[in-house]
Amino acid sequence: AAGDPLTALADLLGDRPATRQGLFQRTGEVLLGCRLQGILGAGGMGVTYAGLREDGRRVAVKLVAGVAGEHRGRFELECRLLQELDHPAIVRYLGHAVLADGTGALAMEHVDGVDLEQLLADALDDRGTLTVVGQALCSELPPGRGPRLASPRYRRRILRLLATVADGLHAAHQRGIVHRDVKPANVLVRGDLEPVVIDFGLARDQLQRVSFTASGAAMGTLAYMAPEQLGRDPGAIDRRTDVYALGLVLHRALLGEERRQDVGEVVTSGQRPFLLAARHSRMLPVELQAILYR
User: Fold this and answer.
1) Which H/E stretch holds residue 216?
2) Which of 148, 152, 155, 168 has its CA 20 to 30 A from that of 55?
3) pTM for this prediction
4) What is the pLDDT of residues 40-65, one digit of tens each?
5) Which residues are CB-contacts of 159 (< 8 A; sequence separation ≥ 6)?
């Protein structure tokens, strides 16, 4: 309907709005043995629904429009990579299919929590009522952005959380898989502050040398992108790309802001050593600065 906010969002998601709009209208359907109950999130790669299996298990079902040709290969790759990975910090694969209308469907475990970006915003921006996860992160912390960022307890919790993410990424790297889009929005955090990495839609399988990105096409999220992701050589992307992005996530979590915002800064970051701003150096003890510099 005209004025429907979901339809308006669908129109913004790509060059096939009519096809993508259909992804927002599948509540109640049964796909992969799961009844779709409501939309959890949407992005350029598709729409993710909460689903319920016949046995009562809650799941997440990601739908991707127009899965044909090259796009089908990329979708099948994401599903295969997830199927191969078995780590508590990586979202668990449950099944996938390409439907008769060309829609790709991927069923995954449902992670009951919030993404790290929302968690940081809730905890540091004093948005009022905290989620359950926000309450866990902020438990026994002083009020206010500055005092929380300076709190040793907050820093320990963030380091423990991101160390778990690093362990999950290491498991993927051991299988030759590079995520390529590590960012706070792709880390879901449960109520016990245990993280789960999601969205392997841009992943690269290094062992098979498989990538469905055209040479020279930059893929990732600008604020967390490594310099080599702007280059024309897909082979330059390896596990260090994810490590670099994770360092920028740590910067965001420890200092409360992203490291950079535009393409020029991404390019120049590959031409000069990483340096913390003077005001940030004053905020962090040398031990934490050393972690960021690595």
Assistant:
1) none
2) 168
3) 0.83
4) 988 766 899 999 999 999 999 999 88
5) 291
